[in-house]
């Protein structure tokens, strides 16, 4: 994907199409370009893909549970064009956006229920880049693992050598009924989006992972450090079973 350094001048601010939009602290993000209904308030330096100016608000790419692209809006006074350039690849953008949203709940970005799998889909939509191998047909983790296993897009941890993982992989936890030759009854309890690896560790941003429950029984988006050999992590008591690789290996 080619990105050009085109600019939209809005008042005294210049928004560049090849840079992320970053927010001020405690900023409301609106559902429409004219209304006052918001998704929530977002932390400082939340990052989104710029999509233009509409009715004097900055239009950003947003996601949803089905992985489709939607849009949201920020008042110009509360955001600016970041120093960070947009990456060319979907998994890179997903990582940048995900890390900026740590500490929010699913409700804040329009995701209800136990939203760990739907958070992955949301990131795809927010990245603005399509990927046919990223499963978005169900928000149930077990259904996703079944899809990845069936399509040879899943690596299971063997316990003797560290599992190969890289940015863009999906770490699945507490997988049961794992049978690659008959994946019909596979179940999984949780998933996270791998944003980096170093040595024997992987680092993932995971929806519904940490902190106190909110009024809709959700936990927050968390930044997780995990062990690629043992599958143990620092922020919750689930065990990483394996990783899907919808964006490829290597």
Strand order of the largest sheet: 10-15-11-12-13-14
Give the beta-strand count: 15
- The fraction of residues in strands falls at 35-45%
- Name the helicity range: 10-25%
What is the count of helical runs?
3
**Gap between N and C termini, in Å?**
19 Å
Mean pLDDT: 95
Looking at the structure, what is the overall shape?
Answer: elongated
Poorly predicted regions:
none
- For the report, how would you describe the main beta sheet? 6 strands, antiparallel
The Rg value, from CA coordinates, equals: 18 Å
Order of helices and strands: EEEEEEEEEHHHEEEEEE
Structural class category: mainly beta
Question: Total domains, how many?
Answer: 2
Question: Could you write a compact summary of the structure shown?
Answer:
It contains 3 helices and 15 strands.
Can you put this structure into words, describing what you see?
This protein has helices spanning 90-100, 116-127, 141-150; strands at residues 7-10, 13-16, 19-23, 27-30, 38-42, 47-54, 57-62, 70-75, 79-85, 154-156, 170-173, 190-198, 201-210, 220-227, 240-244. It folds into two domains: 7-86, SH3 Domains (SH3 type barrels); 107-244, no CATH class. The chain is mainly β. Helix 1 (90-100) packs across helix 2. It is built from three helices and 15 strands. The strands form four sheets. It has a six-stranded antiparallel sheet with strand order 10-15-11-12-13-14. A five-stranded antiparallel sheet has the order 8-7-6-3-9. A two-stranded antiparallel ribbon has the order 1-2. The longest helix is centred in the middle third of the chain and has 12 residues, at 116-127. Helices cover 13% and strands 35% of the residues.
């Amino acid at each position: 994907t080619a990105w050009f350094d085109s600019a939209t001048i809005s008042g005294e601010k210049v928004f560049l199409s090849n840079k992320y939009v970053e927010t001020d602290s405690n900023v409301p993000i609106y559902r429409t370009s004219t209304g006052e209904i918001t998704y929530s308030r977002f932390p400082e330096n939340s990052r989104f893909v710029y999509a233009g100016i509409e009715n004097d608000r900055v239009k950003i790419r947003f996601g949803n549970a089905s992985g489709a692209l939607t849009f949201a809006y920020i008042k110009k006074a509360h955001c600016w064009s970041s120093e960070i350039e947009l990456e060319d690849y979907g998994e890179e953008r997903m990582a940048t956006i995900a890390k900026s949203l740590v500490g929010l709940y699913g409700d804040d970005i329009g995701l209800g229920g136990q939203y760990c799998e739907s958070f992955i889909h949301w990131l795809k939509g927010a990245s603005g880049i399509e990927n046919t191998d990223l499963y978005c047909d169900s928000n149930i983790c077990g259904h996703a693992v079944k899809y990845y296993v069936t399509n040879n897009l899943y690596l299971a941890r063997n316990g003797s050598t560290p599992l190969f993982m890289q940015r863009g992989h999906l770490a699945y936890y507490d997988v049961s009924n794992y049978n690659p030759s008959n994946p019909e009854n596979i179940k999984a309890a949780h998933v996270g989006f791998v944003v980096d690896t170093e040595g024997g560790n992987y680092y993932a941003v995971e929806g519904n992972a940490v902190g106190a429950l909110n009024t809709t029984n959700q936990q927050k988006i968390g930044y997780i450090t995990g062990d690629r050999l043992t599958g143990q992590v620092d922020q919750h008591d689930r065990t990483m079973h394996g990783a899907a690789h919808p964006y490829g290996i290597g």
